[in-house]
């Protein structure tokens, strides 16, 4: 593979340095693996096509009545291809995709069966987020009120009323900010 320094090899093994796509491809070919098999938790990027492959979880994200949160050991992680431009300026390592269930976000143009891409752990200002609340996983518009330490959870469908919860509420976890979505026509 062209590495002669034990220090360089140690840095690669410790995930201290990022390997160029060309080297990752060489490693996978030598070992007879697909890139996704070699690095299952790291997205892959094809600079020729502009396609980024990211994790796709089987957990449905509810845009309506809550979808029960699955325990991590029950989640199946597959992969899905997206245009890399959807993730511009965001670390590829935090991106995750999931399918939407329900109609509470239709006024934001997010429909049942659509795929949302969210940046795990990213919380910055008002916007559309994936969150877990009382054992349910949701996709909703969030508005933060730092003065009252409250969070307004807004459905983008006039048929659903917003609700306000304490930002410290038990069972509340903001999983990440939605950075894009697309209509799934499968």
Give an overview in words.
The chain has 186 residues and is mostly beta strands. The protein has a domain of 116 residues: Umud Fragment, subunit A (Ribbon), CATH 2.10.109.10. It is built from three helices and twelve strands, in the order αααββββββββββββ. The strands form two sheets. Strands 3, 4, 6, 7, 8, 9, 10, 11 and 12 form a nine-stranded mixed beta sheet that branches. A three-stranded antiparallel beta sheet has the order 1-2-5, with no helix packed on it. Strand 1 and strand 2 form a beta hairpin. The radius of gyration is 19 Å and the shape is elongated. The chain starts with 5 loop residues before the first helix and ends with a strand. The model has no long low-confidence stretch (mean pLDDT 81).
Unreliable residue runs: none
- Overall CATH class of the domain at 58-78 and 88-182: Mainly Beta
For the record, what is the CATH homologous superfamily label of the domain at 58-78 and 88-182? Answer: Umud Fragment, subunit A
| Series of H and E elements | HHHEEEEEEEEEEEE
Tally of contiguous helical segments: 3
Distance between the termini: 40 Å
Radius of gyration from the alpha-carbon trace, in angstroms = 19 Å
- The CATH architecture of the domain at 58-78 and 88-182 can be named as Ribbon
- Topology, number of strands: 12
**Helical content band:** 10-25%
């Amino acid at each position: 593979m062209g590495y002669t320094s034990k220090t360089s090899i140690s840095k690669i093994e410790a995930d201290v340095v990022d390997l160029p796509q060309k080297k990752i491809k060489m490693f996978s070919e030598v070992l007879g693996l697909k890139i996704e098999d070699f690095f299952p938790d790291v997205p892959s990027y094809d600079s020729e096509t502009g396609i980024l492959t990211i994790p796709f979880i089987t957990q449905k994200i509810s845009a309506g009545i809550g979808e029960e949160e699955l325990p991590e050991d029950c989640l199946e992680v597959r992969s899905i291809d997206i245009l890399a431009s959807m993730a511009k300026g965001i670390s590829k390592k935090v991106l995750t995709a999931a399918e939407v269930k329900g109609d509470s976000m239709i006024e934001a143009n997010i429909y049942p069966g659509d795929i949302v891409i969210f940046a795990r752990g990213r919380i910055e200002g008002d916007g559309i987020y994936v969150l877990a609340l009382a054992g349910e996983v949701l996709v909703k518009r969030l508005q933060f009120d730092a003065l009252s330490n409250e969070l307004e959870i807004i459905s983008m469908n006039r048929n659903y009323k917003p609700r306000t919860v304490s930002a410290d509420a038990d069972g509340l976890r903001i999983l990440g900010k939605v950075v894009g979505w697309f209509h799934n026509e499968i």
